Amino acid sequence: MRNHSLFVSLIALAVGMTVSPGSAKSQETVAEQPASPCGIPEWNVGSPDFEADLAVVFGRLPNGMRYAIRRNTTPPGEAVIRFNVQVGGRDETDAEHGAAHFVEHMAFNGSTNIPEGELLPMLERLGLAFGADTNAETSLDYTTYKLGLPNTDEETVNTAFMVMREMAGNLTFDPAAVERERGVILREAQDRNDANRRRAADYLRTALPGTPLGERITADAERIREISARDLRGFYQAYYRPDRATLVVVGDIDPVVIEAKIEELFADWQGEGEPRALYAAADINPSAPAFSNFVDPATPEIVEIQTIEEWSPSDNTVASARDEVLRAIAGAVIANRINELSRSADSPTLGGQVTEQPLFRTAIAYGLLIVAKDGQWQPTLELAERELRRAARYGFAQSEVDEIKAGVETALRNAAAQADGRDSVSLADALITASLTDAVVTTPEVDLAFYQQIAPTITAETTSEAFAKAFEDGPDIVHLSTKIPVEGGTQAIAAVLAASAQVAVTPPEEAETVAFAYTDWGEPGTIVADERIEDLGIRTIRFANGLQLNLKRTGFEPGKINFTMRVGSGSSAFPSDVPGLALMLPIFATIDGFEAHGPDELRRALAGRQIELTLSANNAGLVSEGATTPDDLLLQMQLLAARLTATGYREETRGQLVGVVPLLVENLRAAPIQVWSNAFNAVLSGGDARLGVADPVSLGNLSLDDLRQAIEPQLAQGSVALGLVGDFDEDAAIEAVAATLGTLPARPSRVEVGKPPRAVAFTGEAGPIVLTHAGQDDQGVLSLSWPSDDGQDLPDDLARDVLASVFNLRMTEILREELSAAYSPQAFSFSTTTYDGFGHITALVTTPAEDMDRIAEIIEEIAGGLTSEPVSADLLERARSPIREGFERAENINSAWTGLVAMAQSDPEELDRRRQRLDALNALTPQTLQRVAAQYLRAGQARQIRVVPE
């Protein structure tokens, strides 16, 4: 029986530091053990080795409800609440299929003390936006309700607790409300019926045939139509019980006060009626490999070769944690090998990963997922089989293991150094996960000490042994996804696997040590200007070569530095007739490397360092951004300088792009919302490729040469500005920049607001513009866009944002709540300061093609209502409050400052916008919005885009 915790992968090792590793014991078994100084006694969670985070107040009410409270001031003045119930789709009977998700929806549609339709407006008045701050999720094994509180004043906190208490035990399930919500759920089921979900369902049916998981992961429209309010109430009463629930509160709060509130509000919660037993999986012990060929025209070709074992809660021991770390490191080594093999032009694969993943607290899958180029499933399966067998038979080279170990230890050291900067959302989510898995919640310092304790025992030999043990009996499942059926079916797949197993494999070789080539940049640059913007806490520096460096020191996230480098003119300088350049650029940046190093050499050279190699394009510049640490700041600056002067455009990159582009095209075509989101600005500008991809198929013509011609002149000659925000020594940061970017040849001084080579204009051709998608026949997207203006006039720009927010609320009230005609209608205002006069207010709905005429009429009517009379003061405040809270929240987040800081010299007007935006927002009145609506939401001026099935 395999252990499981948040250490199931190296990603968890790098960023999931709040829950310690552990193995497998049931909650009931742990409860019978004597009290231990370790573990979480209040939750009856035992551990012989790990002490829980002392900053967390754990508790259990007499009715059995668990709770956890943690004071955290990142960001300050806010809090996060999570309410989890251990019930999900796997607990449903066949007749109740969909009940868990339906109950989650009904939690927002009427309870004893909150009438239907009142919950969201009540929270919006407090600054919580639906979706962003007010949400819920239903999995196959749990349901979690989520509130993000923009402030922790008494009214907001009391309201949030009252809401959660209502959801826990006071839902009413009014039959009329159930009928209204039924249509919303059916619309959501339509929207989410994509190839990935269908593939996951087929995988679970194959991997876990004795369980209902494969059937429950996709919606059953017939059952949704038939399930009654009585059925839902019965399900709710059977499973929403305090002994199956956990409440978590993390934020800028007083734990003593919060604990008293929990006891006051939740101590009297008692389940109604007879409880039902939670789902218990049958023994999972596959006797022979299971094969499946999932076929869907919209799926990538994916090969999965994995073992399957039973899942159990954590036992929180060092020994089992070490086993997980060994398997994770082994998986990372194999993934590196496969990804290196994918670089060649004739490789059948685009890359893969090896991970250990829990399957809804029912089983654990460990093994390889690898993506094939279209039509290349057979050589990809052969490659996957041989690499897994090579690892099981010959193990790993010490250099391979050491590379991964370096990254793990760095991630853990940085997590410990940055512990005080962890955000409340991640802390709260980790506590919920800990409750579900009976894991002990530890500190990053404890996690680092644990790893340092076991690190000497992590060798090539022990890692090889751990992988060989995990795969000693071969795979339990071979799951193949293809666009067309495999000739010969699963027997043919099994035959390919068997034949591949007869091919000899060879031992791995030790990799050569790689020295990073870009460390010596010559004489440091000279500073010619050094000033401070006192009210914003920004220091501006200009070098003799034209480089603009802007610094803002903060204490928001200790030990962390966010950076943004802006170069050239970005996508506005791209050719307007070559689509996809901005879309492909971030992909290119991850697979290319530099002139002196391919991506794999670069990975080895930089092992154990926290750096980023991103590159993207916005309307005004090429952008490289991310986060680093004070120790790695100089290296990060060396990488930015290399990006400007030594981008590789390597031949192996050309070969990889040839394989990636067809997959990207199919992915974009597979879902209507993907087609729309990549196309809408290009369509509204008359086909300008700088703003989007009107036809995904056109990406097939894009080449590495096109990309190089678009970005290399900007990288080599474009003006440069760099912003650093975070915890750093100013002198050390200036020295690092002077020794790298400051040494480069002179460039023009950067100015953000300039005229692009070609103007952009909103085109208002009559009649809907029809695009097509390759997804399901009952899926589609409808949008109506009214031309507005650019973003240079701050009061007008903000008024359009709030008007769009009002529009969004009205669409939700009418299309979702009243008519059940849409799951998640949206409205937004788009504007840019790059293209004079170009902007729009857009209303967007996912809907089948046959409903588009009716919904378009309703949207036009809503727009007309906004122009004919002022909105109520209440509606204005509900729309404005989340925007205001977002502005205030951004003041204490590094990433919300970096873009602005980078432009402190190149666009001083943007600084004024930051200073003035809150006052401008608060000055808006209902009459202002009516005037703006009358100006822009003119009847007959909206341009429709319809995305319909091919």
Automatic annotation (TrEMBL):
SUPFAM superfamilies: LuxS/MPP-like metallohydrolase (SSF63411). One of its GO terms (molecular function) is metalloendopeptidase activity. The keyword Oxidoreductase does not apply. The keyword Signal applies. Residues 227-407, 701-881 form the Peptidase M16 C-terminal domain. Residues 75-215 form the Peptidase M16 N-terminal domain. InterPro entries: Metalloenz_LuxS/M16, MPP/UQCRC_Complex, Pept_M16_N, Pept_M16_Zn_BS, Peptidase_M16_C. Keywords: Hydrolase, Metalloprotease, Protease, Signal. GO terms for biological process: proteolysis. Residues 1-24 form the signal peptide. Pfam families: Peptidase_M16, Peptidase_M16_C. Its cofactor is Zn(2+). PANTHER family: METALLOPROTEASE (PTHR11851), MITOCHONDRIAL-PROCESSING PEPTIDASE SUBUNIT ALPHA (PTHR11851:SF49). Belongs to the peptidase M16 family. This is Insulinase family protein.
